[in-house]
C-alpha cells in the first residue's frame, strides 16, 4: 500500500471512529447489558473485513494471543508477563479518541481499587509515543501502557477488535484466557461490575 493510500485509509478510519463515538454517547440499556455487548460485538465482527492471512482474532474462551509491544521507554514487554497469575483488563485506546479519553479516569479509579492479586489494568495505545506522553502529562494513569501502530494486523485485531473501533477492552482471566470483550467506553462505575461478573 502506498503512503498516500495508507494515509487515506487512516483518515477514513478516524472519521468512522468519530461517528461511532457519537453513537456511544447516546447509550441504550441494550449496550450496557452483557447480552447487549455480545450482540454488538457479534454485529461488529459480522460486518468486519476479513483479517489478514495468519491473523486469528481472539474470541471468548481463546488463550490470550502472544503479544509483545514496547512500553513508553521502548522496552519490549510480553502482555502475558505483566501480571502472571492475575486477570488482565486490556484497554485499547488512543489520545485522539474522545470516548477513550473520557473513560480514562474511570479505568484509573478501577486500577487503583485493585489489590495485589486483583485485576491488572493495561493500556494498549494505538498512538505515537509523543501523543501518549502528552496525554498522560494531562491525564496521568499509573497502570502500564504499551504502544502499537494501528493497522489491519495490530494487537487490537489479535485481541478480537476486527472493526478497529475504539475504545476496545478485553478481560483475560488469571489462566490467560479471553473472557470478555467490550466495544465502546465504560460509563462511570461500570468497569468494576463488568470485570467481576
TrEMBL record:
Please indicate if the UniProt record lists Disulfide bond as a keyword.
Answer: yes
Supply the InterPro entries for this chain: Redoxin (IPR013740), TAT_signal (IPR006311), Thioredoxin-like_sf (IPR036249), Thioredoxin_CS (IPR017937), Thioredoxin_domain (IPR013766), Thioredoxin_ResA/DsbE_sf (IPR050553)
Q: Where in the cell is it found?
A: Cell envelope
Domain Thioredoxin as annotated: residue spans: 58-197
Q: Which Pfam families does the annotation name? A: Redoxin
Low complexity bias spans? 39-48
Gene3D superfamilies in the cross-refs: Glutaredoxin (3.40.30.10)
| Disordered: annotated span | 32-66
Whether Thylakoid counts among this entry's keywords is no
- Superkingdom per UniProt: Bacteria
* Biased composition regions of type Pro residues, renumbered to the chain: 49-66
Cite the entry's keywords alphabetically: Cytochrome c-type biogenesis, Disulfide bond, Redox-active center
**Which protein are we looking at?**
TlpA family protein disulfide reductase
UniProt organism field: Pseudoxanthomonas kaohsiungensis
Amino acid at each position: 500500500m502506498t503512503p498516500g493510500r495508507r494515509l487515506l485509509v487512516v483518515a477514513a478510519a478516524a472519521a468512522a471512529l468519530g461517528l461511532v463515538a457519537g453513537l456511544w454517547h447516546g447509550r441504550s440499556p441494550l449496550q450496557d447489558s452483557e447480552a447487549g455487548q455480545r450482540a454488538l460485538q457479534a454485529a461488529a465482527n459480522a460486518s468486519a473485513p476479513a483479517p489478514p492471512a495468519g491473523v486469528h482474532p481472539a474470541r471468548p474462551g481463546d488463550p490470550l494471543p502472544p503479544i509483545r509491544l514496547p512500553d513508553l521507554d521502548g522496552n519490549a514487554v510480553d502482555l502475558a508477563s505483566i501480571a502472571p497469575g492475575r486477570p488482565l483488563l486490556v484497554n485499547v485506546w488512543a489520545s485522539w479518541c474522545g470516548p477513550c479519553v473520557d473513560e480514562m479516569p474511570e479505568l484509573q479509579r478501577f486500577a487503583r481499587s485493585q489489590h495485589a492479586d486483583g485485576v491488572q489494568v493495561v493500556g494498549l495505545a494505538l498512538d505515537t509515543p509523543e501523543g501518549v506522553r502528552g496525554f498522560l502529562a494531562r491525564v496521568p494513569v499509573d497502570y502500564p501502557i504499551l504502544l502499537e501502530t494501528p493497522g489491519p494486523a495490530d494487537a487490537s485485531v489479535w485481541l478480537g477488535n476486527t472493526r478497529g473501533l475504539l475504545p476496545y477492552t478485553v478481560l483475560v482471566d488469571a489462566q490467560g484466557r479471553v473472557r470478555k470483550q467490550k466495544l465502546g467506553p465504560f460509563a462511570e462505575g461500570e468497569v468494576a461490575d463488568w470485570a467481576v461478573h
